What we know:
Layout: H1 2-26, E1 41-50, E2 55-58, E3 67-71, E4 76-84, E5 90-96, E6 103-106, E7 110-111
Antiparallel strand pairs: 1-4, 1-7, 2-3, 4-5, 5-6
Amino acid sequence: MRSSRLGKTLATVTAATAMALGGTLMTATGASAVGGSACEVNIKNKQMIASSFGAQTRSGPGTNYSKKKHLSAFEGFYARCYAKNSHGNRWYYGDPNGSSSRAWVYAANLQTP
């Protein structure tokens, strides 16, 4: 009888924990870092450069994501894919200056060399 009660208690705690974690994962904010999984269209290393004012890289496709590296004016960027955010703005995901530190850059801040 004792092991039956323990088993029910353990099952209840496990179910409650799973529900709590699932709720947490489903309510994650849009400002959490995202990688290439947010891409809508893949492209093959399209070489681009930052505009004359430079370009801010971010952890996701939007200004609400954290800032990463700032690209200097005309610094290289190799785009791998792109996505449109909730405002319909195109953001490229790729490698700043050929590095392996991938980030997102707003399309208006990039140009083709």
